[in-house]
Amino acid sequence: MSTGRGGADHDGPDPQHRRPPGVGDTTVDALGALSKSLETTERARGHLYTFHQLTGRADLGLDDAVRLLREAGHHREADLVEHEILGRNVIPGHWTFQIVEAYNATYYRPFAEVELEVRNRLAAGRDHLYEAEMKERRRTPHHPDHTALPD
User: Fold this and answer.
1) CB 124 within 8 A of CB 21
2) What is the spatial distance between Cα 116 and Cα 50, in angstroms, rounded to a whole number?
3) What is the mean pLDDT of residues 55-83?
4) Is this structure's pTM higher than 0.85?
5) Does the N-terminal peptide bond of residue 20 adopt cis geometry, omega within 30 degrees of 0?
């Protein structure tokens, strides 16, 4: 029995990763592209959190710089760093946490919601159909390290 490009219907993929009846190859490709884009957005979001944390760490590190400048007798320079850089907005009106919040509300959450809605409409909510079928095509039957499913 054929399941599209996924190959013969044997020990994998599991039912949650099999395309529902009537779902064609182009739909699976489209869902795979949508999922890949969301995954890329997840990575971008992670980098945004990295930016947020590194910038915060740098700002907190300025406390030591200001203290050490004062201890070394460089009060004018300590004042310059303290008044011009410490606690400064990274873009007008925003600290990094505000950028993260705006990104999540404006882009990330709507993207994740739309991706789920499209998957629900077109594939009964099933995730990673494209990848599951690719795995099935690339497995070596009966090889112990190419099993379709976990033990």
Assistant:
1) no
2) 26
3) 98
4) no
5) no
